[in-house]
Write a structure and sequence with these properties.
alpha+beta; four-stranded mixed beta sheet; globular
Length: 215
C-alpha cells in the first residue's frame, strides 16, 4: 500500500468515529494539510481580567493565535498546515472571498453536536470556502478560550502572589471534515497550571494542543 493510500485509509477510519465517542483529539497523519482557524471567542476571568494580561478580548484572542502558531511550527507533523496568519493573508489576496476567518458563525458548535448532525449554514459555507483556498478538507476551529481554577493537586506545586488560586487556560476546539460536513472531535483541551500573573499560561496550553493534534 502506498503512503498516500495509507493516509487516506487512516483518515477514513478516524472520520467514521462519532465525536461523542472519542476521548482525545484526532491526530492527523503526517503530510495531511489542515487549516488552523483563529480562536473565535474568549471569556474573562471572574475578576474581569483577560488572559495573557491583555487589555481587550481581541488582544487575548490574537495572543492565543500567536502561541498556537509558535507551538505548531515546532511540530514536524504540522509543517504543511495553514496557520491563522497564512489564512488571513490568503483571504486578503482573494477579494472574491467574502469570509472573515476571525468572525465565523461558530456559536452553534459551542455545545457538543450529536454524532448525526452536519455542520449548519452559514458556517458550512464559510469553512468550505476557507478549506478550498488550501485544497484540504480538514480544519481545526478553536471556539473559546477561558481561564479555569486548577485542581488542588496541581496547586501543590506552589502558592501564588496574594494567595490567588492557580489557574490554567483551556481551549474548546472542534476538528472538522468539511467534505463530509462532520465534526470529527469536540472537546476542551487544558493547559498546565500556573499563577494568574504568569505569562506562560497560553504558551503551556498551545504546547498541549500541538501535541494532541500533530504527530
Amino acid at each position: 500500500m502506498t503512503q498516500r493510500m495509507t493516509v487516506v485509509a487512516v483518515l477514513l477510519a478516524i472520520t467514521a468515529v462519532p465525536a461523542a465517542a472519542q476521548e482525545s483529539a484526532v491526530r492527523f497523519p503526517f503530510g495531511t494539510p489542515v487549516v488552523i482557524l483563529p480562536v473565535q471567542s474568549v471569556e474573562p476571568s471572574p475578576d474581569g481580567a483577560w488572559p495573557a494580561h491583555a487589555a481587550t478580548g481581541e488582544q487575548a484572542l490574537r495572543a492565543m493565535d500567536a502561541e498556537l502558531e509558535f507551538a505548531l511550527a515546532d511540530r514536524r507533523g504540522a509543517e504543511n498546515w495553514a496557520l491563522p496568519s497564512a489564512l488571513r493573508r490568503r483571504v486578503d489576496r482573494n477579494p472574491i472571498v467574502d469570509v472573515n476567518p476571525d468572525r465565523l458563525a461558530y456559536q452553534g458548535l459551542i455545545e457538543r453536536p450529536e454524532a448525526r448532525d452536519q455542520i449548519y449554514e452559514p458556517l458550512h459555507g464559510e469553512l468550505r470556502t476557507l478549506a478550498a483556498l488550501f485544497g484540504t478538507r480538514f480544519l481545526m476551529l478553536p471556539l473559546r478560550l477561558r481561564l479555569a481554577t486548577a485542581q488542588a493537586a496541581e496547586d501543590a506545586a506552589g502558592s501564588c502572589r496574594d494567595n490567588a488560586d492557580r489557574l490554567r487556560a483551556e481551549l474548546l476546539i472542534v476538528l472538522i471534515d468539511i467534505r463530509r460536513s462532520a465534526v470529527m472531535w469536540h472537546g476542551s483541551v487544558p493547559g498546565g497550571a500556573g499563577c494568574p500573573e504568569s505569562g506562560a499560561l497560553l504558551a503551556s496550553l498551545a504546547a498541549v494542543v500541538a501535541r494532541e493534534i500533530a504527530e
